[in-house]
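Good morning C.,

I know you're traveling, so I'll keep this short. The sequence:
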Amino acid sequence: MLASDLLGLGGLFSAAFLAATLVPAQSEALLAAMVVGAVASVPVLLAVAAVGNILGSCVNWWIGVQVDRFRGRRWFPVSDKALAQARETYSRWGWPSLLLSWMPVIGDPLTLAAGILKEPLWRFLIVVGIAKVGRYIAVIALAEQFIS
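The tokens, ready to paste straight into the viewer:
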């Protein structure tokens, strides 16, 4: 594997990681482009994107666990209103709501709320993993349709 390929995979990991945090970013277009460009095998691209995205969600979960410690700090990216809404939604639907963690806008606050409400990390990882891998499989399938 060339150094440029490793840099590309690092970029994909970084984009996927950031996309799962409260930082506005997206990784689907990059993943699709890398599939179409055959930068690496599809399983490698899927693994890199999924691991980055799941780890990014774990950052949200950890911030949620620590929310009382961090709330009110200038850099804390969530308003009290958004926090209350995420907490209410997560309280109503519980861990199955994490299956929506792949969705733009609502997914990141859900993973934060899971931490706030002390969702066990093992269950968080399983459910978020299913959601994130499923989304990236769909992106890859669409990209492969473009190729054929």
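Safe travels,
E.
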